[in-house]
Amino acid sequence: MRSRAIFMIIASACLLTGCCAGTDAAKPTQPEVKSENKQPLSQADQMRQKAKVAEAASLIGYDGKAINRDLNKIIDEQERSAKQLEELNGL
Predict the structure, then answer these.
(1) DSSP letters along the chain, please?
(2) Which pTM does this prediction carry?
(3) Are 26 and 20 in contact, with CB atoms under 8 Å apart?
């Protein structure tokens, strides 16, 4: 009896979430971004963009800005280390 009820709940949830999958109205439209003269982001800049997500940790009680600041320090250190390694390889 219990497993039958759980199966019915799971089946209903799957059907309800799958009903709107085929409609275009449910999909959010994103504006087209034309990047004509933009340079591709470096690896450090890409990591900084991803680190911005860490600020969302403040929603659950953590200090998101401090986490983001610490991640940026780590990224800067990694960037400095990579430059030093390149300089050593050039010798």
Answers:
(1) -HHHHHHHHHHHHHHHHHTTTT-STTSPP-PPPP-SSPPPPPHHHHHHHHHGGGGGGGGGTS-HHHHHHHHHHHHHHHHHHHHHHHHHHT-
(2) 0.51
(3) yes
pLDDT tens digit at each of 91 positions of the chain: 676 767 667 766 655 566 555 555 555 566 665 555 677 888 888 888 888 888 888 888 888 888 989 999 999 999 999 999 999 987 7
- Judge whether 79 and 44 are in contact, CB under 8 Å: yes
